[in-house]
């Protein structure tokens, strides 16, 4: 038996990362075709062109990189790419490819036109990454046999395939790896309307009677993230079944979200910790992201790539050359009165600003 992770206990409902209970239901709820995929109109249109053109030419499409915060549909989109191509998909992840041999085995088992999906591709080990360069470019790997001066490298042909990589940290990819992708799709947070569509679709699949205003309420509080929207829908359904007649109305949705401690904007534990540190410990900033991360006991990369993008999008946090600052909306969200002189406005007239041109 494993202990629940204590610092996750409160935040699980709102985490954009997949939780243990999500796996099965996510499989059920995953869109299968590009047309079922809600939102991301740019990525969808661009991918449609990439895929259709490859299909007409009868070749596997260029390698595709999908980047964006967790829960926005990268894995779903990868599977859709394979489905649209009528291709088989092989799934692995960066951390699983510790040795080059692990990757060589996967690559040599590919059939022509297969899609190889590497999740968290920024975490791939260096030797495997170097093997991947050659595989992506020339559909070839060099397998090294033996050690030291007697080592020989045996070139091995592999079938033309399409690599689909997913990453929450495209900035952490090395230049050579990034350059070998023919197309990069950046996934954005979803609007409340788009999340409402996701919810409608999920409610139909799961047989949950979801009323329009209940749907809008859950959508608004799902942190722009379909994974969270789907999870909140299931939690609100639980509440509706136990405490009410099973229908998800506005009142039921509100009462349920109250019980699960979901705030008005659906900010998660880390979002709230960051805002609160920024406002209370640093008087609204500006403060460097590394300092902010230490204050909330998280890694800078998590704060930067998971938490900040949403706070910026929600208009709570601004990134300035001198550091992060809280907007008046952030103060108000925490129930505090914003200072009369707003830090980034002061910064704008600060001639000594080193970050702008330095
Ligand atoms: N555009 C979308 N339309 C409908 N459902 C979506 C969409 N994007 C994500 N989802 C839902 O959210 C869940 C998490 O998506 P996933 O592809 O695993 O995200 P990521 O790989 O980016 O973390 C999926 O199981 C799916 O149910
Ligand atoms: Mg994923």
From TrEMBL:
Residues at which DNA binds: 319, 324
Main location: cytoplasm
Location(s) in or outside the cell: Cytoplasm
Binding of Mg(2+), residues: 75
InterPro entries membership: AAA+_ATPase, AAA_lid_4, DNA_helicase_Holl-junc_RuvB, P-loop_NTPase, RuvB-like_N, RuvB_wg_C, WH-like_DNA-bd_sf, WH_DNA-bd_sf
Keyword Amino-acid biosynthesis: no
Positions that bind ATP: 29-30, 71, 74-76, 137-139, 180, 190, 227
TM helices/strands, residue ranges: none
Quaternary state and interactors: Homohexamer. Forms an RuvA(8)-RuvB(12)-Holliday junction (HJ) complex. HJ DNA is sandwiched between 2 RuvA tetramers; dsDNA enters through RuvA and exits via RuvB. An RuvB hexamer assembles on each DNA strand where it exits the tetramer. Each RuvB hexamer is contacted by two RuvA subunits (via domain III) on 2 adjacent RuvB subunits; this complex drives branch migration. In the full resolvosome a probable DNA-RuvA(4)-RuvB(12)-RuvC(2) complex forms which resolves the HJ.
Record-given protein name: Holliday junction branch migration complex subunit RuvB
Organism in which the protein naturally occurs: Amycolatopsis magusensis
């Amino acid at each position: 038996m494993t202990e629940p992770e204590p610092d996750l206990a409160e935040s699980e409902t709102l985490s954009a990362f997949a939780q243990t209970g999500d796996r099965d239901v996510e499989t059920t709820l995953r869109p299968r075709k590009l047309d079922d995929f809600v939102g991301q109109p740019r990525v969808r249109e661009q991918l449609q062109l990439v895929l259709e053109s490859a299909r007409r030419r009868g070749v596997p499409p260029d390698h595709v990189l999908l980047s964006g915060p967790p829960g926005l549909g990268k894995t779903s989109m990868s599977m859709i790419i394979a489905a649209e191509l009528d291709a088989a998909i092989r799934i692995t992840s960066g951390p699983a490819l510790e040795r080059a041999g692990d990757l060589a085995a996967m690559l040599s088992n590919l059939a022509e036109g297969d899609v190889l999906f590497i999740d968290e591709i920024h975490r791939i080990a260096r030797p495997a990454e170097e093997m991947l360069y050659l595989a992506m470019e020339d559909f070839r790997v060099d397998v090294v046999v033996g050690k030291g001066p007697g080592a020989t490298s045996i070139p091995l042909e592999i079938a033309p395939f399409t690599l689909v990589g997913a990453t929450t940290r495209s900035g952490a990819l090395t230049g050579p790896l990034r350059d070998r992708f023919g197309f990069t799709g950046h996934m954005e947070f979803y609007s409340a309307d788009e999340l409402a569509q996701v919810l409608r679709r999920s409610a139909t699949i799961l047989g949950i009677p979801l009323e329009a205003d209940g749907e809008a309420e859950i959508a608004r509080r799902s942190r722009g993230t379909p994974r969270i929207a789907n999870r909140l829908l299931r939690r609100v359904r639980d509440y509706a079944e136990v405490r009410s007649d099973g229908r998800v109305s506005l009142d039921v949705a509100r009462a349920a979200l109250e019980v699960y401690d979901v705030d008005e904007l659906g900010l998660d534990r880390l979002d709230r910790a960051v805002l609160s540190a920024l406002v209370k410990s640093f008087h609204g900033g500006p403060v460097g992201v590394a300092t902010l991360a230490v204050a909330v006991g998280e890694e800078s990369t998590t704060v930067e790539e998971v938490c900040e993008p949403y706070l910026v999008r929600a208009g709570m946090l601004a990134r300035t050359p001198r550091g992060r600052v809280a907007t008046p909306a952030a103060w108000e969200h925490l129930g505090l009165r914003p200072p009369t002189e707003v830090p980034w406005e002061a910064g704008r007239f600060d001639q000594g600003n080193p970050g702008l041109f330095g």
